[in-house]
Design brief:
- This protein has 316 residues and is mainly alpha-helical.
- The chain contains ten helices and three strands; from the N terminus they run ααααααααββαβα.
- The chain folds into two domains: 222 residues, Alpha-lytic protease prodomain-like; 84 residues, 2-Layer Sandwich (Alpha-Beta Plaits).
- It has a three-stranded mixed beta sheet.
- β2, α9 and β3 form a beta-alpha-beta unit.
- α1 packs parallel to α6, α2 packs antiparallel against α6 and α8 runs antiparallel to α9.
- The chain is elongated.
- Pfam families: Cation_efflux, ZT_dimer.
Length: 316
Amino acid sequence: MANSIIAAIRRDIVLYGALAANLGIGVAKFVAAGITGSSSMLTEGVHSCVDSGNQILLLYGQHRAKRPADANHPFGYGRELYFWAFVVAILIFAVGAGVSGYEGYRHVVAPEPLSDPTINYIVLAIAAALEGTSWGLAIKEFGHKKGDAGWWDAIRDSKDPAGFIVLFEDSAALAGLAIAAIGVWASHAFADPRIDGVASILIGVILAGVAILLAREAKGLLIGERAEPEVVETVRAIVAAHPDICSVNHIRTIHTAPDSIFVAISADFADGVSMGDGETLIDEIERELHAAVPQLSSIYIRPEKREDAAGSSAAR
């Protein structure tokens, strides 16, 4: 329980840090875009606003996911966070990438006169510092959770969308800032304002790619993903260690929240175990499982003959 609370606090710190950075950066970018008429700065302003809205949605999702189980949702509301993560991915694609692409196209077709880029460079430098700080927090938090796993494998296996969404957003934001800076510089260096519009289109392409990756990961979580193989093997070892268990037929798991797992176990009990002894054995196994894997929120153990379960033992 203590670890879950600490993890939730760390997630909130990352989200609030990203929200504060994006709100400040967004205002500065819009001011700079209004003064200079830069397409890429306007695009970056929209990008920051979309990111701010995303952090608010994730915080809202985390709040909703904490509601206790009730009659209509006996396994709780934890997966509501996964729904809002999917909404965030759609917003990045529809609003972030869409507006960026449109603004870029508009400035390529009808370029605006160039103005002094100094304020753009100042805002971009401040934005890079703030985004870099937020990105550092996200990297530190995700690196703490991923352990020895590779970064991409950790993202694919992660059951907490808040962590990897902020990481993706901040990475895309830093890449966007670099492209915006190059676009502003090149527009003035070559006296061609259309280059600034091309930079906006490139930022939109990056956002579209990030949105597709996030939507894919969020979809998997929303449909339902199994627990880590280490968790499944721990459950199997604990159940199989009891002398009255002849064999473990299968173990099926699903995450109902980042820190909540439902597990269904089919096991062959010894023929001599009575109904009362079986109930006592199940209670004992459940206590051991809760102690070994605190994330197990619901445990279902089904006594089942090995030959009867053979046909359904493929999924683990």
